[in-house]
Amino acid sequence: MVEENLSNKELKALVSLLDDEDVEVVEHVEGKIKSLGTYVIPYLEFEWENSFNPTVQKRIEELVHTLQFELLKGKLSEWRNSPKTDLLEGMWLVNTYQYPDIELDTLRKELEQIYYEAWLEFKTDIHPVDQVKIINSVLFSKLHFGANTKNFHSPGNSMLSVVLQTKKGNPISLCIIYMLVAQKLKMPVYGINLPNLFVMTYKNDDAQFYINAFNRGLVFSKKEIDEYIDNLKLPKNDKYYEPCTSVDIVARVLRNLMSAHEKLGHTEKVEEVKELLQIVASN
Fold first, then answer.
1. Pairing of strands 189-194, 208-212
2. Residue 102 — pLDDT band, cuts 50, 70, 90?
3. 184-198: per-residue pLDDT in tens?
């Protein structure tokens, strides 16, 4: 339950106690602030800006993060349970874990610009493979998107805003940008959840082939997937050939993010991302 909104004066008095030498007092104050809910975030941010006390600033940062994290969990649960799990919205929510101020509209506008670049060169009356070549040319040659081989395990690879800014990503983040642009061009391009690699499929009633965004949009066939699965000594499974859902994609992005933080030794972040994953991966 969120308690009744406190006045600025009362909030200021609470925040001033974050500097108390008594640990129990600080814990009580932090508990009280958390119980007030997310409406206090702007006020806490204001107090942070006007504080010259590093201890208070650190405690305010932690409080804001806790409140924002609770907000994110609620939004992610809503997204997961909505009838239309929009992929861009899901990726934006993941993005807000590290960049809480990022707006969905900002990501949408950046993708609109990429779509526009592709639309200028796109042709509807050519073979699907040639359409893919046009997107490849725009994304990888003209706009210089590419594989982030130097920092393959960076948490930034799971943040769409970072990938759009740096133009470097891992297989799944590059595929997500590619898919969102292709689908806006009315192309039947979807994600494929392969073990250790995320790719895409072009699939309609007349044709099906596969696309590897991590390898500059390389087009390949079912035979290559057969060989890939054989090399990994895994049993055949339909999911390695057929489109996966937006929920599957966001869950995989969160697994990558968890793994990235594990490699960096960020134990707290690993636990938090695990909580987000449990929300998304729940049946």
1. unpaired
2. very high
3. 999 999 999 999 999
What share of the chain has pLDDT > 70, as a percent? 94
247 contacts: CB under 8 Å, gap ≥ 6: 80, 85, 90, 280, 281
What DSSP designation does 31 have?
Answer: H
Structure tokens of 171? 């297989």
C-alpha distances in Å from residue 73, one per residue of 31, 39, 77, 273, 276: 19, 16, 6, 10, 6
Separation of CA 188 from chain center? 22
Q: What is the pLDDT of residue 64?
A: 83
Place of tokens 């940062």: 61
Residue 193: both structure tokens together: 């959840």
Q: Which residues contact 117 (CB under 8 A, 6 or more apart)?
A: 138, 142, 143
Tell me which residue has tokens 């968890």.
258
Task: Tell me: pLDDT of 153 over 90.
Answer: no
Query: What would the pLDDT profile of 236-273 be if each residue is shown by its tens digit?
Result: 899 999 999 999 999 999 999 999 999 999 999 999 99
Token pair belonging to 246: 């937006």
The encoded tokens of residue 16 equal: 């001033």
> By C-alpha distance, which of 207, 205, 173, 215 is closest to 191?
173
The phi and psi torsions of 7 (rounded to 5 degrees) equal -75, 160
User: How does strand 168-169 pair with strand 146-147?
Assistant: parallel
Distance CA 74, CA 56 (A): 27
